Amino acid sequence: MALAVVAMTATFNACGDDDDDDDNSSTNASIVGRWFCTLEEEVGDFDEDSDHGGTRDATEDEEYLVIESGGSFYWLEEGVKSSVGTWRVDGDYLYLSRDYNTDKYKITTLNKTTLVLLYNYGDWVRYTTYKRQ
C-alpha cells in the first residue's frame, strides 16, 4: 500500500511540472503577433506641471509592437521599424531586451484581441493597451 502511494505521488509531481511548461508555451504562442497601441494610462504621484498622468488615446501615434515567434520583436512607429530586440515571457512578465537594456512589463491582460502591459517607473506606472491587428 505504501508503495502505491509513493508511485501516485511521483506521477502527480511529474504532471505538475509539465503543466508549468505548458502555461508558458501557451502564453508565448498567444502573445505572438502584431499589436496596435490604442490607449495609455499613467497612474501615480505627479508634480502639478508634469507631462505625465491621466489617460490618452494613443491611436494617432500609429505605434505597433510586433512580437515574432522566433523570439525577436520590434516597434513600428508610423511605418518605421525601431527598437529591434528579443523577448521572453516568464510567468506574468514580458521581458523586452534591446542592446544592453531589458525592460520588464507585467502582463495584466492577454487574450485573442487585447494585450495590456504595465510598466513600473517607480513613483508611477503606465498601462498600455494594444489590440491585435
Task: Describe this protein with a few key phrases.
about 130 residues, 9 strands, globular
Q: What report would you give on this structure?
A:
This protein has 133 residues and is α+β, with helices and mostly antiparallel strands. It has one helix and nine strands, in the order αβββββββββ. The protein has an eight-stranded antiparallel barrel with strand order 1-3-4-5-6-7-8-9.
Number of continuous helical runs? 1
- Mean of all residue-level pLDDT scores: 82
Which structural class fits the helix and strand makeup?
alpha+beta
Fraction of residues in β-strands: over 45%
Q: From the alpha carbons, calculate the radius of gyration and give it in angstroms.
A: 19 Å
Sum up the overall morphology in one term: globular
**Total strand segments:** 9
| Helix share, percent | 10-25%
Give the helices and strands as they follow along the chain: HEEEEEEEEE
Q: Main sheet: which strands, in order across?
A: 1-3-4-5-6-7-8-9
Main sheet properties: 8 strands, antiparallel, barrel
Distance between the termini: 57 Å
Q: Low-confidence segments, ≥5 residues, pLDDT <50? A: 1-22
Structure in a nutshell:
With 133 residues, the protein is of the alpha+beta class. 23% of the residues lie in helices and 53% in strands.
Give the arrangement of secondary structure elements.
Elements: H1 2-31, E1 33-44, E2 54-57, E3 63-67, E4 72-77, E5 80-90, E6 93-98, E7 101-110, E8 114-120, E9 124-132
Antiparallel strand pairs: 1-2, 1-3, 1-9, 3-4, 4-5, 5-6, 6-7, 7-8, 8-9
